[in-house]
Amino acid sequence: MKPLWSLLYCASLLLSDAQATYHLSAGDPQLIAAQSYAQTRNNGRPPIRTLNPAKTDSQCRSRPLDLVFIIDSSRSVRPGEFEKVKIFLADMVDTLDVGTDATRVAVVNYASTVKIEFLLKDHFNKPDLKKAITRIEPLAAGTMTGLAIKTAVNEAFTEQSGSRPRSRKISKVAIIVTDGRPQDQVEEVSAAARASGIEIYAVGVDRADMRSLQQMASIPLDDHVFYVETYGVIEKLTSKFRETLCGLDPCAMGHDCEHICVNTNASYYCKCRNGYILNADEKTCSLKQVKVEVVQADPCKCEARLVFQKQTQAAIQQLTAKIERLENMVGRV
Questions:
Q1: Angle, nearest 10°, between helix axes 79-95 and 126-134?
Q2: pTM, 2 dp
């Protein structure tokens, strides 16, 4: 058993972290009902999530994503606060496996207008991504969040912009960061985005409208809506997202495959070595049985052969009898 002082110390750390960062509960049951079937995630989520990523760094690897940040840079976001948002984006990039075949990142900046800072196809390494983030400037006025989401769907999450085809089964994820109330409608456009297969996380800061965050986010809301009191502590969310986006290899964590475990990011399946086949339980293997094909003779052909043999034998016997008679006759002469 762990010493009591150790448990108390861990509890105090958890409490201090919780005072700065909160998960929002779903709250209103009618709100959940209003969240359409579109919120059912089409993307595989990792089956195991770690509460302490530092202890699993050797096995922790973010699942491949097409990830688009949608960031609010309206007038209410002061220049110093916007710099904090950029630091948060850079820290997030550091936690991801960035690359052509790994995670691709784009940023959509919005206020009263929307600006795509860079697309999923533009940068495939961390240094280039972080340099591009440093060049982002605030847009100043308005909070057109709905327009920003629609622009992300129509222009950032497209194959022309670097999003992988649906057949690749790469998760599409949008992370929205805002500190205000949207000046346009977000519910319908968010539902359409989710229906297209995009998983939405909503991060609210300070004066953010809670109901709008819930209308935008995927379900369960407890996993997709976050709130921080100030931009000064937004960096704390980096570890929260690492827990969510970091997929542990289920094959490395333990499996029940008799021969070979194959990781599919969301789960795993079993395979057998050459010469074996997978049993019905999809876990164990059996030796592949060689089928011996028995060729059955045509009974008609067999019968005809027997008749021919009998006729031949009869003819030989008759001929032998004639020869014997001739020999006897010659002997008498």
A1: 170
A2: 0.60
